[in-house]
Amino acid sequence: MTIQQLRTFCAVVEDKSFHRAADRLYMAQASVSQQIAALEKYYAVLLFIRSGRSFSITAEGLSLYKWAKEILALIDAIPDKFKELHRQSEGKLVLGASTLAGNFILPPILKQFKETYPKVELSVHIGYGNEMVERVRNGTLDLAIVGKNLNWVNEAEVKFLPVAIDHLSLIAAQGHPLTKRKIVYPQELVGPYTFIHSRPGSAMRSMVEDYLKQENVTPNSILEMGNHETIKRAVEQGLGIALISTVCISREIASRQLVNIPLLNLSKVSRQFILVSKQRQEYNNVERSFIDILAGLIPPDIKA
């Protein structure tokens, strides 16, 4: 069986004539008859019932016609698929990310993207979530991944697509008294422990303050640090305990540099990581390729 035999068969069905099919395909009528006979022999079925110069198609012939059209459509689409693949392999993509997303979510995605599309010129900008949203809005970023602010909603210029979920964890250094507990109650955070906060105005600080407010807890001693990394290093050195994004502590927990302490009701607090793009935007091939890789590499435990 050959592709040409399937094309010849479809032409006979559509033209309702061996002669007209031969003319359309620039073939001798005898060659058309030979190709149909070869198909019938190959599949061991009768495709046409012949009566003199006329013929009718059999049920098997109708089925083969349907399948042949699907096969030929796929084959004929291959050149366009290659053109699309070529377009995907070249271009430019300007991405933005908040600090947390840029440090802990983007790296494996960028690695896979660069390995798959090495000719794409990739530029990544890290900053505050509000800044990244504004830069998508004004067109200086193509896409951005940030932690969602609860005040953000889809608007006329930008849209927000949830891609992952961020939770909080209570962390302490090895040997801290709370690490021996199976469960810690929120009110115990008021005790003799220094509580390490992120900078005011950060999304993580808002999450922590929301939790403490819900539990009616005000820590006695607070130490403010600049970002996730400085908070983790301070906790490792025994300067205090902290509520911090779960996304950013997996390596330290695995290496036992930090201990994740069960804290009552903490699982109720979460926020979304979102993909920010222009509203009503048709993604180009490079953007679509990035989004496909993003969707495939978000860990199942934080996938939105």
TrEMBL record:
Cited Gene3D superfamilies: Periplasmic binding protein-like II, Winged helix-like DNA-binding domain superfamily/Winged helix DNA-binding domain
A UniProt-annotated Pfam family: LysR_substrate
UniProt KW Nucleotide-binding keyword: no
Keyword Transmembrane helix: no
Signal peptide positions (record): none
InterPro entries named among the record's database cross-references: LysR_HTH_N, LysR_subst-bd, WH-like_DNA-bd_sf, WH_DNA-bd_sf
HTH lysR-type domain mapped to chain residues: 1-58
Family statement drawn from the similarity comment of this UniProt entry: Belongs to the LysR transcriptional regulatory family.
Keyword entries, A-Z: DNA-binding, Transcription, Transcription regulation
Protein name per the record: HTH-type transcriptional regulator CysL
